[in-house]
Design a protein that fits this description.
Shape of chain A: elongated
Largest interface: A-B, 40 and 40 residues
Largest sheet of chain A: 4 strands, antiparallel
Distance between the termini of chain A: 74 Å
CATH topology of the largest domain in chain A: Jelly Rolls
CATH superfamily of the largest domain in chain A: Jelly Rolls
Oligomer: homodimer
Strand content of chain A: 15-25%
Structural class of chain A: alpha+beta
Chain lengths: 240, 240
Amino acid sequence: MAIVDPSLVAHLPLFAGFSTDELGEILREARSARFARNSAVFEQGEEALSFYVLLHGHVRASKTTPAGEQVVVRYVAPGETFGVAMAIGLQRYPATATAVDDSVVLAWPSAAWPRLVAKFPALATNTLQTVGSRLQETHTRVVEMSTQQVEQRVAHALLRLAKQSGRKVEHGVEIDFPISRQDIAQMTGTTLHTVSRILSGWEQRGLVESGRQRIVLREPHKLFVLAETVPGETEPPIRP
Amino acid sequence: MAIVDPSLVAHLPLFAGFSTDELGEILREARSARFARNSAVFEQGEEALSFYVLLHGHVRASKTTPAGEQVVVRYVAPGETFGVAMAIGLQRYPATATAVDDSVVLAWPSAAWPRLVAKFPALATNTLQTVGSRLQETHTRVVEMSTQQVEQRVAHALLRLAKQSGRKVEHGVEIDFPISRQDIAQMTGTTLHTVSRILSGWEQRGLVESGRQRIVLREPHKLFVLAETVPGETEPPIRP
DNA sequence: GCCAAAGTTTGCGTTGGCGCAACGTCGACG
DNA sequence: CGTCGACGTTGCGCCAACGCAAACTTTGGC
């Protein structure tokens, strides 16, 4: 019997199109594991022994440059796969995965991937779609970094996080895991100082409410307008 | 009989692991087409009716923002696939593909993809690997844009182009297709003015030789050192 | 062979955002 | 409940790169 009830994961994109029996067979090869907040699931450069599905919590994937600078590649939300290095032809993890909250994962041995794919080709096509989506998102990020200023990039980043991992609260949408100014800086290609200044500004304008590792979007729509507004541009002129 | 001799494309990553017969069956569904320099293979937002393998020439994939700014996503070299929107779950092309040189492509109807993948699952795993590689490359680009200055990013971009599409010439390596300052600016997230200034500087130092839509790397190694050098940093200090 | 268009170069003033530094504040842990 | 460490804020000076503008060069079309 599998470690996890198939019905709990049947709806995930990775398992689209599978019968309960097939799912059971796949799940039988997985183990489940828990990672405490701030612990590493795997480290950049390590041999890619497993691939994962996140069940609960949140995981940050980040790359460290030779010079020691870190860049956040993405945040993983529950239901998403990560660490699929083997599937895309890598022997080693290209990034570090850190649990930013207490997290629970399903883990398969990477060695099982070829056999699983041989038996269940839909795994490959499903993974192709999710990797494709990530490629699109990363291209979007490149376009933003090429054409927009820091304030807009930060706005976009927060809106994306809120969409992916937002939790409705009293006065807006709160990002549902601990996130620092530094983290946001590493997502948007700037410094924590600049992020701090931007958030302070927004706070005074009532757009957000934020504190230690905590951000609430109070006016997501206004933030969206700000994110789309070309800096030099003002409101569309009203005809006299 | 197929339009293209199987032996000509058997070595491509997309077709890894296929027999000549299988390859023939796949190629039978393709048509070949020629695109003149500066003509569009497909446009961003168009319905993704085909996917392609580039046989000869060079193709630029670029995205246009709502504000009208363009960003170069990548350059496609012979042997590479492009326009695989359908495989990654898109109905429409997310970018425009332009032949930067007279080019020849193989084109399959996107509609054939599901059937081909069903019959030849290795197509999916091969594509997964190439899309995975592109994701890695794009992440590298994000990291560079986040941590490096313009001069280094331009150096990296040229070195990558030289590796992918370099042609040995008398005094170095020439990038084997027409490429403007503007193109390089759109690859590295800067302006054509800044690129022009940087290339002028390098030209005086004898690192490159360049002209109208033409760039020769005369000292690739020195360029590599420059690309890796942290701006503030000088040569490692010599002990007294 | 001439002209228009496209690509490139370069000067100059401006500025967004960085780097540094100092200080403030919250929370966890003993 | 006090202390220490991590996180956040803010002022200030600076500079890499941008934006604008003008001039120059090459090339392809007619």
